[in-house]
TrEMBL record, chain A:
Name assigned to this protein: DUF790 family protein
One Pfam family matching this protein: DUF790
From TrEMBL, chain B:
Protein name: DEAD/DEAH box helicase
Domain of life, per lineage: Bacteria
Domain Helicase ATP-binding: from-to ranges: 88-232
Organism: Myxococcus xanthus
Start and end residues of each Helicase C-terminal domain: 321-459
Coiled coil (UniProt feature): none
Source lineage: Bacteria, Pseudomonadati, Myxococcota, Myxococcia, Myxococcales
GO MF term list: ATP binding; DNA binding; helicase activity; hydrolase activity
Keywords for this protein: ATP-binding, Helicase, Hydrolase, Nucleotide-binding
Pfam families: Helicase_C, ResIII, XPB_DRD
């Protein structure tokens, strides 16, 4: 993230727009490459020296504010070595020895007398002792490499643009996100990231378009707690949606403004590109599911469950006549803990619109099996629930209730 | 049969998936249209539970993650009358409230008594890392349980834990349900917007706020009263004065630069100020310093001016005359405990290397801070060098001599530094030296920070 003085934005008629850099800005890409080359050449160098050198380089660039921002983002991702073992212990011995020498001096002693006695007491020459005394300070640590994956120049510019948008969000209490006909796997990824960021959302759907009002759990209360950092973290997943718009009321200085972002901005998600996949058995079920009363939908409409859980179901069944929706969440053999949590949440707050498909591998013990078989919302299956079994269960649900 | 009311803790809020039809209970919560539950700030927990009990309605408390704790004192404490009165007033108020006691009147010990009284896991929130380690030491001395720390790179949560306001503000959403008693030391910090959530997001039914001066210019004391409880006790400083503070003396020492230093200082300062004048930006302007920094990196002339700025400052802060005076003071008081304050870390480490003295700055890891303060208290170390981290609140009763080698123009900082050596000990007479370089910009800084009654009275 960028600190306040490194942010770059304009406010016109109450609308705040970050001053993004062009992703193909040759001059900046060259500067970024220079920075990264200097980092590569600085391995083993002291942090203070590296920071000073990069700072001077940034100051001399034609756009120093942008350059300092890039330097900040680079420094945040560098890994410096740990202090050599024994530095603290050696320091301790030396300062204790110095204290004893000081106390033993006569009242008219000079600094030179002190140094002479110290030199006799210490196991190493005084100059070395001085040099090593605080060699473990952060500024003296040596560059070990990148903390995580190394960045290239394009990554760095992308991170900079994202950080420019994240900065104002730090002062936001909520944001509104609209996505135009997003791919469902992308929505799923966004919803999972929402939970990871410990945020909640009110979700609307209008045909294929989605709208999410995203905020912190306590935002509705008169709490001073802001969720700016979580909202800024959430932003990093938003570009996966491809066609989107985001607005938030922000207060980067003393005046409020509306931050407006969209897919037209040069924002790229730094998260891994993988979107997950729809399992082939789910896809084939979706294709092969034929029922007069119910239709099947793969839209992952999120459901808040229990006190604070968020369920992103695998499937949704919609009753053709009443439009009632029943979601199905699948629990495979490796989902024992999530299943236990979900059952607890359903006890806290029953949700008749949620069915749990549970692999029989999770019901090996007799007591567990009986409990699950008796549970009105559980459908047990081997490997994957069949269309027939699901149709039977859906038929038992009274539409419109 | 309907399931009983459940209470949950969710990121600093109290959540009930369902609630009985009771207007008073429901008034504590709001219906959360986003998730369909009832939600309240976590600090409403006490009222919610009391109401459920009053109604005789069965409920399942899945919110709190703490239970009563056996916390016997290692040795009995005989409180001072004002501490006893404060404890009784706080207890009468149901274990909620604010206590206002002057510095040195034993606020920490009062908290120890409160913890032993309520027997609940306790979180103590303090403003600085050094106060954090100091509180840990006091709690560890009085209770035979491990005392955890959260902050300064340490993440060790225990039933008795001390943390800083900064760490607590970030962690409350995770541990706000772990403690039954919340103690806010120097609680006048709590009303800051970024800190309020510490009390808002905590379930703790018992709360104690400690401060020397509750009043705030912005009326923030009302926030303290709402979140921690009403003011239950106040002892005026005049009631306790003479009992707790040591008499003191202030000595100002002006040190001339050597001719060589003076020449280098004048040259560097002229170069630096010349560049600033050509820049046309007064350094007193709000963005003056930032503009100087930016401009100084854009040309060889600017870079030279920046180097000159650092050079003249370094000469004034660590002149050989100052180092000689410091040496004389250290030697004269070699059997005392001496705290040396500087304005910046660079000077601290320069002096530390020169004299092989221990330095305590924000870089010092928490375990080393604790060890340094303990060794200083025991007399194993006669001197501690520090920049600003010991300015506020840290109790160093053993220190008799303070040396302000450099500092800002802040009156508050200067008085706080004086306060570090004023803890009363039998026969103690505290001595504060202020050493400043004559004929440099430091002289006027020194004049400005001495504008305080305590300072002038002492001088």
């Amino acid at each position: 993230m960028l600190t306040r003085e490194l942010l770059n934005f304009r406010v016109r008629q109450g609308v705040l727009r970050p001053v993004f850099v062009k992703r193909d800005d040759t001059e900046l890409l060259t500067f970024a490459q220079d920075l990264l080359a200097e980092i590569a050449a600085s391995r083993g160098g002291q942090r203070d020296d590296i920071e000073e050198s990069l700072g001077l380089k940034a100051g001399a660039f034609t756009r120093p504010k942008v350059a300092r921002g890039l330097v900040k983002l680079v420094l945040d991702r560098l890994l410096f070595d740990e202090p050599a073992p024994g530095v603290t212990e050696a320091r301790w011995e030396r300062i204790k020895a110095a204290g004893q020498v000081l106390r033993a001096l006569p009242p008219d002693a000079t600094v030179e007398d002190f140094e002479a006695r110290l030199a006799q007491t210490l196991p190493a020459p005084l100059s070395e002792a001085r040099e090593a005394l605080y060699s473990d300070l952060p500024g003296h640590r040596r560059l070990a490499g990148w903390d995580g994956e190394a960045l290239d120049a394009q990554d760095l510019l992308d991170r900079y643009n994202l950080a420019l948008a994240q900065g104002p969000l730090l002062s936001a209490r909520r944001l509104r996100l609209r996505a135009q006909a997003p791919d469902l796997l992308r929505v799923r990824k966004v919803l999972r990231w929402l939970k990871f960021c410990r945020l909640v959302a009110e979700v609307w759907r209008d045909d294929d378009n989605w709208a999410l009002d995203v905020e912190g759990p306590g935002a509705m209360l008169a709490l001073q707690k802001k969720y700016g950092l979580q909202l800024a973290t959430f932003l990093s997943v938003v570009p996966v949606l491809e066609r989107w718009e985001l607005t938030a009321t922000v207060e980067p200085s003393r005046q409020q403004a509306t931050l407006m972002l969209s897919h037209k901005d040069p924002l790229r998600s730094p998260l891994p590109a993988a979107l997950g996949h729809i399992p082939p058995e789910v896809a084939s079920l979706a294709e092969g599911f034929a029922d007069d009363a119910w239709e099947l939908d793969l839209t992952p409409l999120p459901r808040h469950v229990g006190a604070s859980g968020l369920c992103v179901p695998d499937l949704t069944f919609r009753h053709r006549a009443s439009k009632r929706e029943v979601a199905l969440e699948l629990f495979h053999a490796w989902h024992a803990a999530p299943l236990a949590r979900r059952l607890t949440e359903l006890r806290s707050r029953p949700d008749a619109g949620l069915l749990l498909g549970v692999d029989r591998a999770l019901a090996k013990e007799a007591v567990e099996r009986e409990t699950l078989e008796a549970h009105p919302q559980v459908v047990l299956f081997n490997g994957f629930p069949s269309a027939r079994k699901l149709r039977e269960r859906l038929a038992k649900l009274e539409p419109g209730r | 049969m309907p399931s009983p009311t459940e209470l949950h803790f969710d990121c600093g809020t109290l959540v009930a998936p369902t609630l009985p039809e009771d207007a008073r209970l429901r008034a504590l919560f709001q219906k959360d249209g986003r998730t369909g539950v009832y939600r309240a700030p976590a600090w409403h927990y006490r009222e919610a539970v009391l109401r459920l009990r009053e109604l005789g309605i069965p409920y399942e408390d899945k919110a709190k993650r703490f239970e009563p704790l056996e916390l016997p004192l290692t040795t009995p404490i005989q409180p001072f009358p004002h501490q006893q009165q404060a404890l009784e007033a706080w207890t009468r108020a149901g274990g909620r409230g604010l206590v206002e006691l002057p510095t040195g009147a034993g606020k920490t010990l009062l908290a120890v008594l409160a913890i032993a009284h309520v027997k609940r896991p306790t979180l103590v929130v303090v403003p600085t890392l050094d106060l954090m380690t100091q509180w840990q030491g006091v709690l560890a001395r009085h209770f035979s349980v491990p005392v955890g720390l959260l902050g300064g790179g340490v993440n060790d949560r225990q039933p008795l834990t001390v943390t800083t306001y900064d760490s607590a503000a970030m962690q409350t959403e995770f541990h706000g349900n772990r403690f039954g008693l919340l103690v806010c030391d120097e609680c006048h910090h709590l009303p800051a917007p970024s800190y309020r959530f510490i009390a808002e997001g905590s379930l703790a039914p018992y709360r104690l706020g400690l401060t020397a001066t509750l009043e705030r210019a912005d009326g923030g004391e009302r926030v303290c009263e709402e979140l921690l409880g009403p003011r239950v006790h106040r002892s005026d400083i005049r009631e306790l004065q003479g009992e707790y503070l040591a008499p003191y003396e202030v000595k100002r020492v002006e040190v001339p630069l050597t001719p060589d230093e003076k020449a280098r200082y004048d040259t560097a300062r002229a170069l630096y100020l010349g560049f600033v004048r050509r820049l046309g930006v007064p350094l007193s302007a709000p963005d003056g310093w930032a503009r100087f920094l930016a401009q100084s990196q854009r040309s060889d002339e600017g870079r030279a001016a920046y180097r000159a700025y650092r050079e003249q400052r370094r000469i004034a802060l660590t002149s050989s005359g100052k180092q000689e005076v410091l040496w004389r003071i250290l030697l004269e008081h070699r059997d005392d405990r001496v705290l040396v304050f500087t304005d910046d870390n660079e000077t601290v480490y320069t002096l530390a290397r020169r004299f092989l003295l221990p330095a305590l700055t924000h870089h010092t890891p928490v375990p080393e801070r604790k060890a340094l303060l303990a060794a200083f208290a025991s007399g194993e170390l006669p001197v501690l060098l520090t920049s600003r981290v010991l300015n506020e609140g840290v109790d160093v009763p053993e220190a008799r001599v303070g040396v302000v080698l450099s500092g800002s123009a802040s009156v508050r900082e200067h008085v706080q530094r004086l306060g570090r050596i004023l803890r009363k000990r039998p026969g103690k007479r505290a001595l504060l030296y202020e050493v400043c370089s004559a004929q440099t910009a430091e002289s006027s800084i020194s004049e400005r920070r001495r504008q305080h009654g305590a300072y002038q009275e002492g001088g």
